[in-house]
Amino acid sequence: MRASLPLAKVSDAQDPNDPGLATRDIGGIDIAVKERETAIADVLDAVETGRHLKLAFCNANLVNVAAGDAALRDRLSDFLMLPDGIGVDIGSRLLYGAPFPSNLNGTDFFPDLFARSERPLHVALLGGKPGVPDRAAAKLAKSYPAHRFSVVSHGYYEPTEEKRLIEGLKAERPDLLLVAMGNPLQERFIADRLAPQHASVAAGVGALFDFLAGEVSRAPKAIRKARLEWAYRLWLEPARLWRRYVVGNPIFLLRMVRQYVRAGGRG
Fold this sequence. Notes:
This protein is an alpha/beta fold and 267 residues long. Helix content is 48%, strand content 15%. It has 12 helices and 8 strands. It has helices spanning 36-49, 60-67, 70-76, 86-96, 106-116, 132-143, 162-172, 185-193, 208-213, 221-225, 229-236, 238-262; strands at 23-26, 29-32, 53-58, 80-83, 122-127, 148-153, 176-180, 201-204. Helix 2 packs across helix 12, helix 4 packs parallel to helix 12 and helix 11 (229-236) runs antiparallel to helix 12. The longest helix has 25 residues, at 238-262.
């Protein structure tokens, strides 16, 4: 069962801005309708109570990837899915008449959470290229000295090492495990390999370690405010990201139109 989310979903007759609503179906993925403060409070509550919470950030790319993968969609049904990016906001506007209350990408979400948490946290990092999670942990430790940051491994470990790494997590049971393997690998890893004994909260964080370690530069604030960070990333890494954005974005928009038509519109 998805932690802390009621089963109710948005219907055509409901006000999409009603804070009591649980989720909105965007391309077959139920994304939580939450303000930033509420989402942070949910994660910190899981840490405080020791309950297990799987967390992911849903953008247009993850919707596209999951569209042809029923097993992945089933895995994601056990996650708290938070809205990430302008794509899912466009889908929400079309299908429900309003964007999500907050844009909750992991790159901004976790630094905000660390700054707000009054409870010292043990945060473990797993994933990224060799050396990247170490530099990311060092940056986080300097920025948020109240918390403890440790590195489990980079993401290029041998398959034979995985059992040892997971046993180490079981022994440590960090408050928060950040998994940076890109989607859908990180979501599959969290769903298939991790259980309550491994971490209070396990979250897929995509490129967070790369940003923290200085491997990839963030878009300037003006570009982020204009919701065009995806275009900046495409400009920086066209060979790697052209398929995700140049091909993927139109496919996502077409998928949203088809969902709108199948649902008979909002009226």
